[in-house]
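Recall that a protein's primary structure is simply its ordered list of amino acids. Everything else, from secondary elements to tertiary packing, is in principle encoded there. The following example makes that idea concrete.
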Amino acid sequence: MDVLSPDNPPLTTAPPPPRIWKFWGTTLWGLFVFGGMFLGQLAVVIYFMLKQDASSIASVIQTIGGGLTIALSVITGLPGVLLALWIAIRPTRTSFVDYLALRWTSWKSFAIGVAALALLVGVWDLILRAVGREASPGFMGEVMKSAQAEGALWLLVIAFCVAAPVSEELLARGFLYRGWSETALRPGGAILLSSLVWTLLHLQYDWFFLSEVFSIGLVFGYLRYRFNSTWLTIVLHGLNNLAATLQTLWLTGQS
């Protein structure tokens, strides 16, 4: 009975401290998260292919590249990312919000981010004019024309400006940066590597626009490091995609 005495309190075991996945853990779980995104998107593609009974290669390509299909696939990829991230983060005993730095930032930080993004995009626009290239990749214009023909332009805007930024930022600047920055890579290496991964998610573009995407990723990565907020990069990513969408609509004469 001595163990119940005030002079001899029972021993308690402290809960294990939270952990952060390191390089290989982050890399492998990152592939898992990408798989969740891919499966969410693939489900929509398969649905439309079965619905339209696509029997030829041309019809398959048309189905996959349709504006409605792309819009819905991007949107359904988001739940896959969220579920996969929840599974990946749960064993670390760190809260979902803290692990991914889902904290709001100040108006000053937001203004700095907007200014940095606007300056970078402005520089790329000047380079575009200097080399005589189109201001918008042809892929975007074709997808938007298809979406408008299917009455799904509004859905495509939601996909590009909301669902895609959330999914991609949670993976790149949220999960990958968090784990890699706490290894020998440190923040600088984590910014570089996560930007490269993010760029590889945009292989529908040519090398020129991939270079622009990579440079934007570096800016987003620095802002993530500087202000410790993934919500900041999500909002900036959404604004960047909205500006690109409006520019494409204007250049293609759509309303």
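DSSP finds ten helices and no strands in the chain. The chain has a mean pLDDT of 89.
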